[in-house]
Amino acid sequence: MTSNPYQPIRAEIKEVIAETPQIKTFVLAPEKEIGFLSGQFMQVTIPGVGEAPFTPSSDPKKNDMIEFTVMKAGQATGRLHELKSGETVGLRGPFGHPYPLDKYHGKDVYIIGGGVGIAPLRALLLALFHELERLNKIELRLGARSPEDLPFKQEMPTWGKREKTNLVVTVDRGDEKWPGKVGVVTEIMLPGDVNPEAAAAIVCGPPIMMKFAVKKLLDLGFSDKDIYLSMEKNMSCGIGKCFHCNLGKHLCCVDGPVFTWEQVKEIPDPW
Amino acid sequence: MSEYFINTKDFNYLVSDLMDKSRVAAPAGEFGRKYWFDVDGDSLGRIDLTGYRTVEPCKAYLFKPTELVARYFDGDTHLSAGPLVLLGARACDLEGINVLDRVFGEGDQDPFYLVSREKTVLIGADCTDCGASCFCSLVGGGPYPTACFDLSLAVVPNGYVVEVGSEKGKKIIDDHRNIFARVLPPAAAAKKENREKVEAKLKRVNQGFSTGELSLLHKLNLENDIWRRLTKDCVECSACNFICPTCSCFLLVDEASSGLNRRHKLWDACLKAGYAKVAGGGNSRPRLFQRLQNRYHCKFDYSFDRLSRYTCVGCGRCIDGCAGNIDMREIFAALDREIKK
């Protein structure tokens, strides 16, 4: 008999970083080391309140601390946002399939993110930075509603300064201090950014943004199997038993949450 | 498979003996219908293995409507179950348990289900009649158990013919060797005759509904707008979910009391509007027809990708329980007509 899959382990909040008015990063020290791969998710327990699924935003190679970048959106995330450094949360996981990094070797990696969807992509990016020599290049296209809604404000500009890495950021609505692009993220996805014949595109963000990003990628010449999506549904048990996260024939928690467009395109309105 | 005969008096003795060591649950008639009940010394005579399946499935004995699954962070979760005998489960009930065994036992395991299941003896029973909503024959089943039992009974004059289905079942026979006899030709003939009679009635009851391959039928109608019309009478009561022997969706709910946090596993229903809702308001199936359609695809289409079988066992309880009078078989027939258009 397996151990209890519903039992969370304890993790202490070491630091809370306010990223935006709605997004905070929680730096956690789990009582036992947790090894995760970028794209996998974990269930974060707010003691006595409940759980919510999040993909860690930290470097998967860093095992003593694990970071979650969370937008205040519902009951659990609302309560999580009230917690302070020194308080305790619970963790279960990791669950699901990660991004298949080996499939990106030798290719252009086209990363498209929006809003809090940039959080899991940060973990992916930090993992990819460990193997930059195996990649052709990384093209980052990130967006948010406004400049203040962009997470990782200090760190983000440094990503674009890494070798083989280019970064373009856009916001739906700029302000007088915003020096960058204004418009939705699909407007900064341009022909020539990457070679769709030898590239992998990774998309994470709000459903509407993912929908249009996929459409754009297909227009740019990407094949269905080279488009990777983080389909985060209502994952609860994490082990394929409770069925809350079913997406057509798939269960996001065990078959995903990372899917290729090829896997989900037949599902009517998968978003 | 070995077969034995046991007379009615010895059968009662056997049940009493099983009761000494286990909780025993069996069907009993009440107001013209049958329900599962816990047998005790005084109610042995209420056990009724004639007729067809009970109103409710026996899944609640194994997959509990609510169960404590974690106490955190320092609590220890009690993971144990007492011995249980489910006596008189019909073929559809047993198939339902087979689905639950696979859902909770394959891949990552759910130890709470498995610990109860391990301690359970399944004693099946042939149906001696079929109900107006029974349709096991349309999903590859039939009115008598062929698998997933430890022992199975067929009611015959003056007793039962007992079939052994597992080592667990064989042990019960071996422990009570003196009360089991050879099956004589009249008993064997009575068993066969009953099976043929019920099979013929099932066929009559389901005449006109036969639609062939249900999985294909669903696949071909995945994007058909007919679902809006077919499911317009659904009122989201979710009776079909809760009364289904294979519906096993659950919710994890946390609570805090006396300084300790507890996590419970609760039956949930995919028809409920909030089922697939995520923080921020997103919902993969905001419309009721989408949720009911998803339930059909879950049982007849997606189930093949996951378990290579239907996860509907044709018990018809969802038909009996539906507040909107939706009959699954009429939906199959309508889907069939759609693809033949």
UniProtKB/TrEMBL annotation, chain A:
GO biological process: pyrimidine nucleotide biosynthetic process
Keyword Cell membrane found: no
GO molecular function: 2 iron, 2 sulfur cluster binding; flavin adenine dinucleotide binding; metal ion binding; oxidoreductase activity
Cofactor: record remark: Binds 1 [2Fe-2S] cluster per subunit.
Cofactors that this protein relies on: [2Fe-2S] cluster
Keywords annotated in UniProt: 2Fe-2S, Iron, Iron-sulfur, Metal-binding
Keyword Flavoprotein attributed: no
Regions that span the bilayer: none
Residues that bind [2Fe-2S] cluster: C237, C242, C245, C253
CDD domains, A to Z: sulfite_reductase_like
Residue ranges of domain FAD-binding FR-type in the record: 6-101
Protein name, per record: FAD-binding FR-type domain-containing protein
TrEMBL record, chain B:
Domain 4Fe-4S ferredoxin-type: 224-255, 300-331
Molecular function terms, GO-annotated: iron-sulfur cluster binding; metal ion binding
Alphabetical UniProt keywords: Iron, Iron-sulfur, Metal-binding
Protein name: 4Fe-4S ferredoxin-type domain-containing protein
Entry-linked PROSITE patterns: 4FE4S_FER_1 (PS00198), 4FE4S_FER_2 (PS51379)
Pfam families, A to Z: Fer4_22 (PF17179)
The keyword Metal-binding appears for this protein: yes
PANTHER family referenced in this protein's UniProt entry, alphabetically: ANAEROBIC SULFITE REDUCTASE SUBUNIT A
SUPFAM superfamilies in the record: alpha-helical ferredoxin
InterPro entries: 4Fe4S_Fe-S-bd, 4Fe4S_Fe_S_CS
